[in-house]
Amino acid sequence: MKKTSSFKLQLLTAFACFQILFISLGNAERSETRILLTSNGTLREKHGENYCAMYDICGSRSDGKVLNCPFGSPSVKPDDLLSAKIQSLCPTISGSICCTETQFDTLRSQVQQAIPFLVGCPACLRNFLNLFCELTCSPNQSQFINVTSISQIKNNSTVGGIDYYITDTFGEGLFNSCKDVKFGTANSKAIDFVGNGAKNFKELFAFIGQEAAPKLPGSPYAINFRSDADVSTGMKPMNVSTYSCGDTSLGCSCGDCPSSPVCSGSAPQPLHENGSCSVRIGSLQAKCIEFSLAIVYILLASLFLWWGLFYKRKERSPTLRPKASTNVTNGGPVQLVHGIKDENISMQDTPHITSGVQLSVVQGLMAKKFRLYGTWVARHPILVLCLSLAVVILLGLGLIRFKVETRPEKLWVGHGSRAAEEKKYFDSHLAPFYRIEQLILATKPRGSHEKPPTIVTDENINLLFEIQAKVDGIRANYAGSLVSLTDICMKPLGEACATQSILQYFKMDPKNLVDFGGVDHAEYCFQHYSSDVNCMSAFKGPLEPSTTLGGFSGNNYSEASAFIVTYPVNNAIDKESNETKKAVAWEKAFIKLVEDELLPMVKSKNLTLSYSSESSIEEELKRESNADAITVLISYLVMFAYISLTLGDTPRFSFFYISTKVLLGLSGVVLVMLSVIASVGFFSAIGVKSTLIIMEVIPFLVLAVGVDNMCILVHAVKRQQVELPLEGRISNALAEVGPSITLASLSEVLAFAVGSFIPMPACRVFSMFAALAILLDFLLQVTAFVALIALDFRRAEDHRVDCFPCIKIPNSHADTDQGSDQRRSGLLTRYMKEVHAPILGVWWVKLVVISVFAALSLASIALCTRIQPGLEQQIVLPRDSYLQGYFNNVSEYLRIGPPLYFVVKNYNYSSESRQTNQLCSINNCDSNSLLNEISKASLVPKSSYIAKPAASWLDDFLVWVSPEAFGCCRKFTNQTYCPPDDQPPCCTSSDGSCSVNGVCKDCATCFRHSDLQNDRPTTTQFKEKLPWFLNALPSANCAKGGHGAYTNSLELNGFEDGVIRASSFRTYHTPLNKQVDFVNSMRAAREFSSRLSKSLKIEIFPYSVFYMFFEQYLDIWKTALISLAVAICAVFVVCMIITCSIWSSGIIVVVLMMILVDLLGVMAVLNIQLNAVSVVNLVMSVGISVEFCVHITHAFLVSSGDRDQRTKEALSTMGASVFSGITLTKLVGVIVLCFSRTEIFVVYYFQMYLALVLLGFLHGLIFLPVVLSIVGPPSRRILVEQKDDKKSSASPSS
C-alpha cells in the first residue's frame, strides 16, 4: 500500500537565512536617499593593490542589517590576534586586510549558517568561504569591488550597491564543487538551500546578490556579480584558486562529488534488471521465446502431419495394416459384464463367452467394497442419513467460536515473513511508521482529450481553508472524551501539527491568504520553499511542493491539477492501545465528515475529492462481508433449479410430478451447505479465523465441485437395468462410478491441500477450509446422498409426488412410461454417440485438433512471460468503495514515492571500529560506504528505484560536532550544552530578530581539531555528544540540530557500550504506480542491501511500509511452479494407485498440464496478475481438471474394440455426464460470481473458473478423446470362458 512520505522531519527554520551569507555587512537602518556613482565609479575611489573599496561600518538598516562605509582607504595591518582569527576562517588572506574586527565578526556569524550545509565537502566549503572572505577582508578589495551607489543613513553615507568582479573560472569552480553536495536532512542538495536550486554559477550569483527586503534574510544591498572588469581603470576580477571536489587533500565524499577520480571508478552497480531478448524479422519484432516456440511448433506440426499421412496410407494399404491384437492384462480381479455381446468375438464352436473387465487391485477392491456398501446403504437409508447429519452437526458446533479476520497484515502476510520480522524490528527499536489520513482535491478536465486546469487558484485555496476548518473542528468520541486532530497528530516541534498542505505556505491561517498575496505567494514559495522564511510552514519546517501538489510535470508546480493534503498521525505498536483507538475513532469521524459535508461542498465547485484514512481498508473489508449476500442466495437458487432439472428424467406430462428430482436436488444443495458449515465449524473450533473469501467463494466452489458427483451418481443409477431391484442398481452404480469419483475427489482434496502450504494466510486458510469442505462433501455424497437417492427412487417407484411424498398417485401407465424412459437414450447421449464421436474419429479432424491444441499450448507458454506479479488494491475492495477512486488518484497525481529506510543493526561507533567511515558520506568517509552507495544508486533511479540521497543522522552529527560548524556544538564553561546564539537562553527575543545577550558570551565550540581522532569523535566524545545532538533544535545559526529530524532514527538504549543497536537512514523510492514497480523496487532494495552487507560486513536491511504486503511476489513464480508440480505429482500418484496404469495416468497428467498452461495464457490475455489468490486457483484447477479427464479415460479403459471404437463408446457412456454433470454444473455455479460486488471474485474466481471450465470441457471432450484414439492405453476388457451350467451373477462394473 502506497503511503506518501510527505513529511519532512527536519525543521530547518534557518534554510531561508542563507542569503545573508553574502557579505561582511552588519546591521542598521538607511533612508531611501541614494547617490548613484559615475560609470567608472571614481567618487573618491581608487582601484589598485592594497587598497580597500569599502572599510568599516557607517550605519544600519531599519531591520538591523549593518552597512559598510563606501569610501576607499589603504588596507590595514591587523594585530596578531585578529590576523589569527582571519586566518582560521580565510586562509587565503594574509598581511594587510580591508575589514575591521567588527566586520570580520559579522562575516563569521553569517557564514556559520552555511557551514553546516557544506562542511561535509571541504572543497566546496573552502571555495564558498573564499567568495565572502575576499569580498570582506581582501587587501586588494578595490581591484574587484566597485561601489555603484551610496545611501544616506542619518547623514552618514553607506554602501547602496556594488559590482563584484569575479572570473567565470572561479564561478564555475565554485559551482561545480558544490552542485552535488548533499543536505541529507531534507533528502536534497545543499545548493537548493544556499543557492535556491541554481543550475549554474550565474544563477547562484544572481540569487546571492539579491537585495533583501526589510526583515527578510539576504544581503542588505544589491551585489552585481560581473566578469567584464575594465582593466584600464585598474579593475581586475577576483580569481582566487578554486578547489575541485575531487581534490584528495580536501576529502569530499563520493556522494558529494561523484565526478571525483576516486569515485568515477566506482560507478553505481546495475541492480536487478530483467533483460528482454527479441528477434526482428523484417518489420515484425518478436520475443526470443515466442520465436523459439514458433519454430518448435512448426517442427512438431510437420512431424505430426507426416505421421498422419503415413498412418492414413498404411490404413488404406492391406499389406501395411497390422494384425488385430488382443488386449491382455495379467493379474487383478475380473469383473464380468453379463448380457453384453462383444461383436469382435466369434461365437462359433465356443462355450458361453462373457466380456469382463480386469481391474487393478485397488480398483477391484474399491469396486467390491462400493458394491457391498451400496447394498447396505440402500437397505438402511434412514440410519445412514441420521449418522451423517450427527457428524455434521457435531462439527458445526465449532461455529460458536467463529471469527472473521479483516486485518490486512493478518490476511496477506505470511507467518515468519522476513518483511514482517523486519517491520517488527523497525517498530520496536525505532518507531512505528505514522498513520496516514489523506485528501486529494482535483480539478476535472473540460474535455475528454484535454488536460485538467490548474487547481492553484485563490478560489480553490479558499475552499481548502474551508475544508481545513471543518477537519480541525472534528471531535470524535472515545471512551467519553472528545478527540481532535491536535490530540493525535505528529508534532515534531512545538504545538503545530505537521500537516502537509499548500496552506502551510500561509501558516495555516486564512487571514494570511490576502496578506501574503494569495496565489502569487504560493507560486513564489513553490520555488523558494527552502530559502524564504515566509514560506516556512507553521510547524517550522520547509514544505516541498511535490508533497502537497499533484498532476504536474517536472517542476511545473503551477500547472498542478490536485491539492494533496496529508495528516500524519502518531502510531503505536500495540493496535489495542488507547492511542490507536483514539486515532481510529477520529478516523471514522473524519471519513463521516468527508462523506456528509466535504463531498457535497467540493462537487458544488465542480471538483473531485478522494479520501482515505489509515483504517479505511480494514473498515471496507468488514463492510464487504455483507456485500454479496444476495449473490450467494441467487447462486444457490440457480444451482438448485439446475440440479433438479438435470437429475430428473426426460419430462413427460403423464408423470412429470413423479419423475422430477426437485426434492433430491434440494437435498443435494443442503448437503453442500452442510459440508461448508462443518468445515468452517471444525477450523473455528481449533481457533482458525475465517476470511471473507471463505465465506463467499467456498460455497460456490464446493457447490460446483460437489454437484458433479451427484449428477454422475444419479445418472449411473438410471443407466442400470430397471429389471434389477433398487439395491442392485445402487450397488452396481457405486461399483461402476465409485472409483472414478473417488479418484477425482481425492485429486481435488490433495490439490487444495497443496494450496495450504502457500505462505499468504488468506489463501492458506482458504485452501484448508476448501480441502476439508470438499472432502466432507464427498463423504456426504457417498453416504447421505446415496441414501437420499434410494429414498427418492423408492418414492418414484411407489408413485409418490416429488416434493410431496405423502401424496401417492395411482397410475397404471406410469410404470411403463417410466421404464421406457429410463431405457431411452437422452438427446445429449445420442449427440455424443452419433455426432460428436464420429466427427472426432475422422483422421483429418484429429490432425486439426492436435495441431490447434498444441498451438494453443505453445502460444500460452509464450504469453506466460507477460503475466505480472501483484494484486491491485482496488480488486480486493467492493466496487462501490470510496477507496477505488482514491487509489486511482494516488497513481495519477502523486509525484513522490514511499519512504525507504536502510536500517543498520549493531553499529559500532567506537574509535577502534571502522564502521563510522563505512557508513557516513562526508569527507574522509569510505568511497563505498553505505550512504555513498545510496547516493550513487539515486543516480540510476530507473533500476535502483531510489529517488534521492539518504537523510543521514550520522553525517549531520559528525558535521554538528565538527570544529568548522562552530555555531552548532557548543558548551558553557560548566561543560553543559550551549545552544546556538539565536535560541534561548542565548536569545530572548520572540519577534525573530535576535540579539545575543551575555548569557552565551562565554560559550565555546565543543572540540578543536586536536581533540578529535582523525577528524572523528572518540568513543567517549561520541557517547557524550550524541544525546546533545538529538536534543538540539535546528535554527538559522545551526541547521543541523537533530531534534525532530532524527528523534526516531536510532535507538539509544544500551548505546553506552559503544554499539547502537538500531539506526536508520531515510530516502525515498521513485513514484511507484504499478504493482510490478512495487515488486521490483523491493527486489532492488534487497539486492542493494545484501550486496552492501556482504562488502561492509555490517547487517543492513531495507524497510518500507509496503514491503510486508509485496514480499510474497518476489518468488511468486517459484512458489507457483513448485505448488503446481506437487499438485500434479499428487494427482499422478493417486491415478497410479487407483488405476495401476502409468499409460493412462501419464495421459491424464499431460492433459492437465495443457489445461494449466492454457489457463496461464488466458490470465495473460485478461491481465490477471500472479499472486497467492491466482496460485491457489491454479493449484485448484489441477484437482478440478481431473474430473474432465478421469471419467472419459476410465470409460476408455473398460471399453472393448480398437481405439476408435473404444473412444466412441467412452464418449457415448460418459460424454453426456461430463458435459451436463460436470461442465454445465460448474458453469452455472461460476457464472453467478460475475454479479459479485467485489472485483476480486469477478476477476480471480469468475473469470479464472470460467476459463478453467471451458478449457476443461474442450480438453476433456475434444482433445482427450483424440489423444486416446491415437495413443490410448490397452483395454482392460478381456474374454472370460464359462460353462453353460454356470450362471453369472456379475453386473457391470468399473
Automatic annotation (TrEMBL):
Keywords: Cholesterol metabolism, Disulfide bond, Glycoprotein, Lipid metabolism, Lipid transport, Membrane, Signal, Steroid metabolism, Sterol metabolism, Transmembrane, Transmembrane helix, Transport. Residues 1-28 form the signal peptide. Residues 628-791 form the SSD domain. InterPro entries: HMGCR/SNAP/NPC1-like_SSD, NPC1-like, NPC1_MLD, NPC1_N, SSD. It is a multi-pass membrane protein. GO terms for biological process: cholesterol metabolic process; cholesterol transport; sterol transport. It catalyses: cholesterol(in) = cholesterol(out). One of its GO terms (cellular component) is membrane. It is found in: Endomembrane system. The keyword Transmembrane helix applies. The chain crosses the membrane at residues 291-311, 376-400, 629-650, 662-686, 692-717, 765-791, 840-863, 1116-1139, 1146-1166, 1178-1198, 1210-1232, 1244-1268. The keyword Repeat does not apply. SUPFAM superfamilies: Multidrug efflux transporter AcrB transmembrane domain. It comes from the Eukaryota. GO terms for molecular function: lipid transporter activity; sterol binding. Belongs to the patched family. This is SSD domain-containing protein.
